[in-house]
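Risk mitigation, structural track. In case the binding assays with N-carbamoyl-L-aspartate fail to produce interpretable data, a predicted complex structure has been prepared as a fallback.
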Amino acid sequence: MQSQLKHVISADQFLDRTLLDKLFSLAQEMEAHDTNGKYRTALAGKILATVFYEPSTRTRFSFEAGMMKLGGEVLTTESAAQFSSAIKGESIEDSIRIIGGYADAIVLRHPQTGAAKIAAKVSPVPVINAGDGSGEHPTQALLDLYTISKEKKSLDGLHIAMVGDLLYGRTVHSLLKFLPLYKKITLYLVAPAKLQLPQIYLEYLKKHKISFQQLSDFKSILPKLDVLYMTRVQKERFADPNEYEQVKNLYVIDEKNIKAMKKSAMIMHPLPRVTELSPKIDNDPRAWYFRQAQNGLYVRMALLYTLLCR
Ligand code: NCD
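Fallback model:
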């Protein structure tokens, strides 16, 4: 597995069951040994730089906590746009070249689609894409897939809805790339017309013969779903605040409409949530989003171990 991965830029790189199985069993191993110290010095002497030009809670902290739990150390800038030399006009390429001379791997979040790919071209060390604008967020998709596969064993035959901001939601873009690995999935793409999935991803689904429907409401499909993947409308990507206002509260799961869902359904969300999930459903066994975020720690530990333990 180690030789196959240098940079982590797109979910495309993980379209390989053997690779995923190895990564996920390592994540399970990380979880099982979280408190007993088996991996406590695995990455001793290594340094991870987390370079975030956009806000983050889960992604940055789980990478940093994961690195520390493996015995490594962390260099971080959480507002790289203001606190790094970007404000003085330094290019992303120059910043990455320099940071790559100090750290053994770089986790990068940047508002520009394609930024991680640009960084990887000049970086002497592995670059991990932690979100490139409305492009991709591959490590989030890995933890999403890990969470579903742990609970459901396989995604074969599942009815899955992706709901909310399918236009700008990078977690959706990465997650759907995994679907060709499974058989007979039915996918529902629920969004207002203006936030529907970009053509390039629709083409991808068609090319891989994934059966999908585009809908503007989710009421009729709630009883059919095995996985409901909710997303936040990405306010920061809207040029016109009025357009955001029109679409911000369209899909909400609350204690009333959750009743229409199967007992075995999984409600997921990459978080942060705004209004899409009522806190009143948090204690329902179908609410998976906090366990999903916790899994992010173990999947990212597995990834760091794979990239850096050589
Ligand atoms: C997501 C992101 O940054 O794309 N957050 C995350 O990493 N869990 C989702 C979002 O911001 O809505």
